Amino acid sequence: MSLGIKEHPDAEVQKNRVLTLDDWQDKWVTRHIAFHQEQGHQLLKKHFDTFLKGQSGLRVFFPLCGKAIEMKWFADRGHTVVGVEISEIGIREFFAEQNLSYTEEPLTEIAGAKVFKVCTDYEFFREHFLILLQHFRPSQIKRNNLSLPSLWSRANIGKFDRIWDRGALVAVNPGDRDRYADIILSLLRKGYHYLLVVLSYDPTKHTGPPFYVPDAELKKLFGTKCNMQCLEEVDALEERHKTWGVDYFFEKLYLLTEK
Ligand code: SAH
């Protein structure tokens, strides 16, 4: 299916945009979290069974997870879910809203980071959720320019059979995309299925996030290592997008598999 969406010619316009981790944490404090979808993502719902391929016991990764309820969809089926998120507020709200009790421990590999694990009386559920909180002291961020996922690799989170990337690649600062893609690729296990949602809108009208990631850039980031198939292109224009000044807004769902 194709809606014939044209690539925007001025894709470079967002390339120097930078949000710091503080900016993201502020969004959670000031409740600018319209990205959160209370019903979960409809395209994931639609493709859920084909994404799982009837397999059990998968390891599923949610980069930049927020409080995405889709994490629970996988855990409820017995899969192991690992999320990474910078906002402790988001993580705590996720567990509270999903009625899950949890433990928290410091992550030894990364100073200041924590691991939240679900704990219930049901053994099967134990450790099926693991959310890593990245937490850096501001001095650390400035000194090493560590506003990014580059640290995930140090956390030993293992490899994954599935990745659900919605609001993640498109939330990463444009200048960090290469590094983000390298890390994601390093986390994939043989036979992986990586579902990725990107957006198409006029980037001269809205500064992002979410950022516009053109198809050509996607190919550059993942095309040499992965087969890329566009499963869906849907019109996702809502009132809140119109207030940004955009008059079209499409979501594209890509499935990336091993080449
Ligand atoms: N994937 C989620 C959230 C999307 S918004 C969803 O679909 O609802 C992006 C999220 O990434 C925010 O919750 C923000 O706090 C978090 N974030 C941004 N940069 C991050 C980083 N470098 N490391 C971890 N989390 C980050």
TrEMBL record:
It is found in: Cytoplasm. Its EC number is 2.1.1.67. One of its GO terms (molecular function) is thiopurine S-methyltransferase activity. Keywords: Cytoplasm, Methyltransferase, S-adenosyl-L-methionine, Transferase. One of its GO terms (cellular component) is cytoplasm. PANTHER family: THIOPURINE S-METHYLTRANSFERASE. It catalyses: S-adenosyl-L-methionine + a thiopurine = S-adenosyl-L-homocysteine + a thiopurine S-methylether. PROSITE patterns: SAM_MT_TPMT. Belongs to the class I-like SAM-binding methyltransferase superfamily. TPMT family. Monomer. Its main location: cytoplasm. InterPro entries: SAM-dependent_MTases_sf, Thiopurine_S-MeTrfase, TPMT. GO terms for biological process: methylation. This is Thiopurine S-methyltransferase. Pfam families: TPMT (PF05724). The lineage of its organism: Eukaryota, Metazoa, Chordata, Craniata, Vertebrata.
